[in-house]
What we know:
Blueprint: H1 2-14, H2 30-45, H3 61-68, E1 76-92, E2 96-103, E3 106-113, H4 114-126, E4 133-142, E5 148-159, H5 175-180, H6 182-188, H7 190-212, E6 216-217, E7 223-224, E8 236-239, E9 244-248, H8 253-261, E10 266-274, E11 286-295, H9 299-318, E12 322-325, E13 328-331, E14 338-340, H10 341-349, H11 359-368, H12 379-391, E15 399-405, E16 421-429, E17 432-439, H13 444-459, H14 470-477, E18 483-489, H15 490-498
Parallel strand pairs: 3-5, 6-10, 14-15
Antiparallel strand pairs: 1-2, 1-4, 2-3, 4-5, 7-9, 8-9, 10-11, 11-18, 12-13, 15-16, 16-17, 17-18
Helix pairs in contact: 1-2, 6-7, 7-9, 7-15, 10-12, 11-12, 13-14
The chain binds one RNA strand through helix 2, strand 1, strand 2, strand 3 and helix 5.
Amino acid sequence: MSDGAGDGAGDGAGDGTGDGAGGGAAFEPRDERARRIAKVDALRAAGTDPYPVRFDRTHTAAEMHEQWDGIEDGSETTHEVRVAGRLLLKRSQGKLTFGTLRDGTGTIQLFVSRAEVGDSVHGAFDDLDLGDWIGVSGTVMKTRKGELSVKLRDFVLLAKALRPLPEKWHGLTDVDTRFRQRYVDLIANDDARRVFAIRFDVVATIRRLLVEQGFVEVETPVLHEQAGGAAAKPFETYHNALDTPLVLRIALELHLKRLLVGGMERVFEIGRVFRNEGLSTRHNTEFTMLEAYQAFADYTDMMTLTETLVTECARVCIGGTTVEVDGTTIDLSAPWPRRPMLDLIEEHSGQRVHPTMPVEELERVLDGLDVDHKPGWDSGQLILELYEKLVEPKITAPVFVCDYPRSVSPLARVHREDPALVERFEAVVFGRELANAFSELNDPIDQLGRFEDQAKLAAAGDEEAHGVDADYVRALEYGLPPCGGLGIGIDRLVMLIAGVTTIREVILFPHLRPEAGHDEPTEVEGGDNS
RNA sequence: GGGCCGCUAGCUCAAUCUGGCAGAGCAACGGGCUUUUAACCCGGAGGUUCAGGGUUCGAUUCCCUGGCGGCCCA
């Protein structure tokens, strides 16, 4: 990249239109870039490396504030510091220049007096561009207005920026650019940095809590021979050397439970899963799941675990369990109500339904409530549709929705009190599924039957249903201890805690269509292949 | 997949409704300024108005097609 930029310097500075016909030309701020490249050339000609190798600093911005925010306004100290960061703002007053430097911890002001540093250093500082990375040395002071500053003695350019920063007040707001060029978004938008800081804290907090509770973190394959563990359409790929079709995983579940068969009593994985479905404000092509499995536990233990994980993440990340999403305030503090799905449906519709009811009767119930359904759905699917249409969107505060119809939950064990149901819950907050958990099915014969039911659906054209995972059944035949399993969508949890409404705000590089202007990549290769 | 909306200077936005020389702020450039905080003051620049086609004497504006994005729905 730097070579290309160097080569382009002459052209760009020369007439600025030499490569104007190129597909990417619309993205080049040519004039500004050419000026900055000329500065790089001038620096090199003067013997200064615009991209030197390293810099030793003594303090971060945050450390400086922590140590010296208390000093008197207008006071100067003899404390020597070396700080480094990106120059964000410059306020030149002739013989005195103020700069705003930002590092990974915050900002610190630079105070550059011509009388102190001399014409040469002051001139070089004024010649910096916003966006440049610099390292500075100087002493700690505070201005008359009370701004903690480094009184600069000298500085070194650490990396020259060739492209201008977005507007300093409004920042970068174009959504497309923010996602495609997340690096610029992170430079320009405090909120982007805030949201991702929350994301990193959420993941770290979950790891800490689970490890504290005796869970072992594992890594299982992303490439599977057989999709399973969720109802979703997988991405298909191909292993050339093995001459085998493979799919990208849609869930972590089946491998983690194999590990419980192997005797690992508490395991978890935080991993990427891939689902080949449409994009929306709540769906990204790839997203991050936490799944945790605990031997000798059931789904009620998973409810407690869910409450612990979610409330502790909120406390760590935002200092409390009250979050605000889209103008609605939600209290996440435990305990959360535990409500059977069939009761909730009755409350919201006045209709008492049950999976043992004849399909025709359930269809009449849905018709009467104006809920669409498809021919061929069984009673479980009809009831789930009732719930998803009439109940889920109305839930705001956290609720554990418990006890799902058996036919829509092929990996959950039959309910201890009602064989038409399974011991499963989803934690629902703000109308969205946050967690999904079961008392896991560990009867291999029952599991095989459920897989066969799914295989029939798949054979009938259901792209989200999958066939029999024979190795998984074989594993169960060695004995899976009774266990509870929990899945939490990390992205959705971060959305909730950060108070954002689209999943793309919590994914660093969300999936987008290819950028315009970078199309027709095969043209250069010579189009002799079909 | 459907409906609606958007795309104008590096960035943030006007002008579009009702067709008539495309503007401002920031950034950049020149000048001034030794305690600024989005510094300020003065000056001069900067445009494939997403792309292609159509209507028109004339299109950023109206129409069509396409691209990318957003919101809502499926």
